[in-house]
UniProtKB/TrEMBL annotation:
It comes from Christiangramia forsetii. Belongs to the glycosyltransferase 20 family. This is Bifunctional alpha,alpha-trehalose-phosphate synthase (UDP-forming)/trehalose-phosphatase.
Length: 483
């Protein structure tokens, strides 16, 4: 029976070693959290990196890692520390990531990183081919594996291959600056179907293909000498029912079951019943606009001193890619900003920012989503932003206000949120004020619309639509051959 082979750099499970034992935790990040439910329900295997370098896994535990992966229908692909440095911290996160998010000043062009990127992409392609049987559908994910589709195509010309990019695709003027632009485009074009979160990313990609490789592009189809490649937008959704149900369970739980975090949040609510909690959750990444958010919050408190002691920003930042210098610098900047603002505005009984720098279990995320009155998400660039969707899905009484950056892919589908430009502090401060004063009926009205859309365009539907379109390309291919 045919199966789907999912490939992403990171597996949905993260393996670590605690006291000589393997610990398995869920991976953080939109790709892993989103795709997990599709994988769980379907007949698929998932190939990816388990989060430790080959050198970090004691030889006696290697089989154990594979066993843990297998329990979840996953295959662990081992990468050496040199490969992780050159491929993951190097080309993926010092070249492609900043370039595709328009941080050109952070973008490095290094031949060694490129060499490792090709080497590791080949390793992924070879591992896929080890598992591939005729009739299988191959689904490659994200910017770390841009060369994989064509590497598979070279060995398995008839394979059905889909590729989905979870981050923005930049405009041609930005993409063209990449020294390896031709190779990267040719790599992705090994796929039959290429998916993006938004129509804009799709358009940018098509424009680069036509201007750099000079292929014929008609509407959303690219004609290659032997095949047609389809490009389309598929905005990724969330597992809506999971978040809704988790929120309902949260409200039904007894106080004995409450987490320490929830107790602390409740304490705050009891002490200051008319105060509001503003939430932000992201990986600590310079694309997420965390420093902008804190500065905008400072601007808000400066301009609206009547809100002192009446508001608190609960900011959860998950450690991410800390071997890359810009991430370490951002960590220092955020620490300093939080310290400075807490020092500037705190009173004996109140601090304006609660800052958590760690990953949290799912239950705590639900505590935060369900308890905070406002979510403030200010990315400077973001492929989608699933946190925005998760926040709305957990608001089972339909109250709560989402303030969302127009630079997030999610903003295209979430018009009823308060949409802001993350560079405009005055606008963010005004949106915060609007959020505080928004009547309950208006919140319910906005969230009713948002929830209806999010429930309909769930992650299941996203995967279904992509797969349906991918299978359709097979018919196109047969028709192309018969011409
Ligand atoms: P990105 O993919 O860039 O990290 P998204 O907002 O699209 O950004 O996805 C982040 C995902 O990671 C969400 O599904 C969110 O629930 C999850 N997540 C974020 N913070 C944490 C955390 N502290 N602990 C566990 N999961 C988290
Ligand atoms: O959404 C972009 C992305 O890179 C995903 O590929 C991944 O799920 C997430 O961010 C986390 O990144 P990393 O795997 O580098 O921790």
């Amino acid at each position: 029976m045919s199966k789907t082979i999912i490939i992403s750099n990171r597996l949905p499970l993260q393996i670590s070693i605690e006291n000589d034992h393997l610990e398995v935790t869920p991976s953080v990040g939109g790709l892993a959290t989103g795709l997990k439910s599709f994988h769980k329900d379907g007949d698929s295997i998932w190939i990816g990196w388990p989060g430790l370098t080959e050198e970090e896994i004691p030889s006696g535990l290697k089989d154990e890692v594979q066993k843990k992966a297998k329990e979840e229908n996953c295959v662990a692909l081992h990468l050496t520390s040199d490969e992780i440095d050159g491929f993951y911290y190097g080309f993926s996160n010092r070249t492609i990531w900043p370039l595709f998010h328009y941080f050109m000043e952070y973008t490095e062009s290094d031949d060694d990183y490129w060499r490792y990127y090709k080497q590791v992409n080949q390793k992924y392609a070879d591992e896929i081919l080890n598992h591939y049987e005729e009739g299988d559908v191959i689904w490659v994910h994200d910017y770390q594996l841009l060369l994989v589709p064509n590497m598979i195509r070279e060995k398995a010309p008839d394979a059905i291959i889909g590729f989905f990019n979870h981050i923005p695709f930049p405009s041609y003027e930005v993409f063209r600056t990449l020294p390896w632009r031709d190779e990267v485009l040719k790599g992705v074009l090994g796929a039959d179907l290429i998916g993006f979160h938004t129509y804009d990313y799709e358009r940018h990609f098509l424009s680069s293909v036509s201007r750099i490789l000079r292929h014929q592009v008609d509407f959303n189809e690219i004609t290659l000498p032997d095949r047609i490649v389809k490009v389309d937008s598929f905005p990724m959704g969330i597992d809506y029912k999971k978040f809704e149900q988790a929120a309902l369970d949260h409200f039904e739980s007894t106080s004995a079951d409450q987490s320490e975090l929830q107790k602390r949040l409740d304490h705050h609510l009891k002490d200051t019943p008319d105060a509001k909690l503003i939430l932000s959750i992201d990986r600590l990444d310079y694309t997420k606009g965390i420093a902008h958010r804190i500065r905008a919050y400072e601007y808000f408190l400066d301009k609206n001193p009547e809100y002192i002691e009446k508001v608190r920003l609960v900011m959860l930042a998950v450690p991410s890619r800390s071997n890359v210098p810009q991430y370490r610098r951002l960590k220092r900047e955020v620490d300093e900003l939080v310290g400075r603002i807490n020092g500037k505005f705190s009173t004996v009984s109140w601090t304006p920012i609660w800052y958590f720098y760690r990953s949290m279990p799912f239950e705590n995320l639900i505590d935060l989503y369900t308890t905070c009155d406002i979510a403030l998400l200010t990315p400077i660039r973001d492929g989608m932003n699933l946190v925005a969707k998760e926040y709305i899905a957990t608001r089972t009484d339909k109250t709560g206000v989402l303030i969302l950056s127009e630079m997030a892919g999610a903003a295209h589908e979430m018009n009823e949120a308060l949409i802001i430009n993350p560079n405009n502090f005055e606008q963010i401060a005004a949106a915060m004020k609007t959020a505080f004063e928004m009547p309950r009926e208006e919140q319910i009205e906005r969230n009713t619309m948002l929830q209806k859309r999010l429930r309909r365009y769930s992650v299941e539907k996203w995967a279904e639509d992509f797969m349906k379109s991918l299978r359709g390309t097979k018919e196109n291919r047969d028709a192309f051959k018969s011409i």
